[in-house]
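[09:14] KT: can someone run the structure on this one? pasting the chain below
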Amino acid sequence: MSSIKMSRLLLLSSVGLGGYLAGSYVERWKILDNHSHNKEDYVNDRIDSLVKKVQSKPGLPIFGTVSAASPIPLAEKPLVASNVNRVGQIMKFGFPGLDNVRSYDDYILSYDRRTRVAHWVFEHLTADRVKHNDAVDRSKCDFKPDESVHPFFRSLNSDYKGSGFDRGHLAAAGNHKAEQKHCEQTFFLTNMAPQVGVGFNRDKWNHLERHVRKLTKEYPNVYCCTGPLYLPRKESDGKLYVKYQVIGSNNVAVPTHFYKVVVMEAPDNRLEMEAYVLPNQKIDEQTPLSMFQVPPETIERAAGLLFFDKISRSQLFKINGKKV
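[09:31] RB: done, structure tokens below
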């Protein structure tokens, strides 16, 4: 077949296809007119249909950042805020960040799906909430995965088994004694991080947790933010590297350090701050906690977070025991 004939054939095919599409378009509008339908409704229906098709496709990102968590499997109950007023109390001085924020009955956290360890955990402590309560029994609490987290990003008890690391609380169980369920919720694995056991989690880190609880005897309100750090270290080639171990089939990150930033509100409304960074390793029992106090700005730079951003540093009466 000659090129001229081929060109004519393609032209005729294009004209025929164009006529068919145009005819179909006209016929649709005729049908609408015959039934006295609103053309705008037709267009809106078509748009809705397309949106539904897009929404049903897998793999599209959903940009929700704040969700509620509950000790009851979320497959059985809808996601609802457990206590809006309590969230307001805990986060009175601002959120350090808004990545995958999850609210429990007595603490709030931001979960890092990449490391399977929280970015930060926030608590509001008072003398009544941390005092001994016979109705609360820690021995009845079980470590459990948080089913509000997608299975791809959960940490599991099996990740810790045989790893040599403790499931270390970020929000301490001893800080939540008002109700049994408050204590139980601190055992979600979203609130855990791999910690060296002897010499750290069971010793110096525990000393810091007890110190924070003791602050409630002097201050009516104590706000505590806790989290992991992954700090650089100089290697033999003289260069700095960020290296950390991962454990289990879900590659749960082992932080190199942990921080606590605490704000104490005095009866006269004066505000004080303490900031600590402890290495995730065995620490000599005789080392005082004051040795681990650091300027809060150093933690903010390392963590990529701003703590208590509703408080100007000039409003603080003391930082790490020294007058500002």
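[09:33] KT: thanks! The chain has a mean pLDDT of 84.
[09:34] RB: yep, looked fine to me
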